[in-house]
Amino acid sequence: MRAGEQVTPQVRLVRAIGAGGMGSVWVADHLTLKTQVAVKFILAGRENETDARERFSREAEAAAQVKSPHVAQIFDHGVTDDGIPFIVMELLEGKTSGVTCSATTACSSARPPPSSRRSAARSVARTPRGSSTAT
Prior knowledge:
This protein is an alpha+beta fold. The chain has a domain of 85 residues: Phosphorylase Kinase, domain 1. The protein is built from 3 helices and 6 strands. The protein has a 6-stranded antiparallel β-sheet, with helices on one face. The N and C termini lie far apart (45 Å).
């Protein structure tokens, strides 16, 4: 993928905004809606794996069914002319959780110590169904 590349006749890539173990996400211009969107691509090298393609397609279909202000709206999904699966979705503005966490001492990307994990598990196990442990 590269900036300026057309994913569909209506969607043109602008810049990469993230990558991870399952794929990459780009900002793109949706030319007919005249707005920016996010485009997620399956991880390079996995586009020919049947299981990965099916999981990616199920992700798009399942996310499209969720109607919530906490979930990005799905606009489209498909496969590029080069055979790369993609999902076109609402572009959400703001900080990533990594940026938010690094700005505070309350978050850490490090795994909590075992004693903390056991304490949290006991707390959840004692919580009656339908209750919340939040105060």
